[in-house]
Amino acid sequence: MNNIIPEHIRIAISELSKLPGIGPKTAQRLAFHLLKQPESHLQNLGEKIAHLRSGTMLCENCFILSAANLCDICQDSSRDQTTVCVVEHTLDVVAIEKTMQYKGLYHVLHGVISPIDGIGPADLRVQELIKRVSQSPTKEIILATNPSIEGETTALYLVKILKPFKISVTRIALGMPIGGELEYTDDITLKRALEGRREYSDN
């Protein structure tokens, strides 16, 4: 079958299959769907993808992906400036915001501690979190890393380094399945996890 498909289409299918959650069959369907679209649509899509990075930066305060130096959340004075929710990625912020339960600020680590992958605290936005806590009126840190081994390891590490600041450190609670990810968790489960957060201790 592959010999029937022109090489440039096979290349497109191969590239599409590299996207998360896209297998070879889905990539093939997407490629043939795109072939049916008007040339103007394909050009517009290509331009949007090509410029995906150019209009995106990290918020200098919380490190969420943003279109400006400060994201909309950090610029919103109506949000609770004393509570910071620590998450792994920007999509976790999107998931929590959908619950409409949380009204504080965020801090995006851009990953988790994973020795097997060679990722340590220095590879994350940990030092920025420490600096932020030391220079702002933070009263509570909510640890909302995923309930995976790496997420728990990261949470425990943060508990230890935040202990000297004498602030409340809580962990999102029941409702989050072990091994689950915030990005794919439904709104009700996330809402309950936020409502039932508990004081985090490394004892």
What is the tally of helical segments? 8
Name of the top-level CATH class of the largest domain? Alpha Beta
Helix and strand element order: HHHEEHEHEHEHEHE
Question: Judging by the overall fold, what is the CATH architecture of the largest domain?
Answer: 3-Layer(aba) Sandwich
**Radius of gyration computed on alpha carbons:** 20 Å
Tell me how many strands there are: 7
Strand arrangement within the widest β-sheet reads 4-3-5-6-7
Strand content: 5-15%
Largest sheet: 5 strands, mixed
Class by helix and strand content?
alpha/beta
Tally of domains: 2
How is the quaternary structure best described? single chain
The CATH topology of the largest domain is given as: Dna Topoisomerase Vi A Subunit, Chain: A, domain 2
- Secondary structure: helix percent: 25-40%
Report the mean per-residue pLDDT as an integer.
Answer: 87
Give the terminus-to-terminus CA distance.
59 Å
Low-confidence stretches: none
Quick one: overall form? Answer: elongated
General description of the model:
The model has no long low-confidence stretch (mean pLDDT 87). The chain is built from eight helices and seven strands; from the N terminus they run αααββαβαβαβαβαβ. Helix 1 crosses helix 2 (24-35). The chain folds into two domains: 7-50, Helicase, Ruva Protein, domain 3 (Orthogonal Bundle); 57-199, 3-Layer(aba) Sandwich (Dna Topoisomerase Vi A Subunit, Chain: A, domain 2), CATH 3.40.1360.10. It has helices at 7-16, 24-35, 39-50, 72-75, 90-99, 126-135, 149-162, 187-195, and strands spanning 57-58, 65-66, 83-87, 105-108, 140-143, 168-171, 198-199. It is an alpha/beta fold.
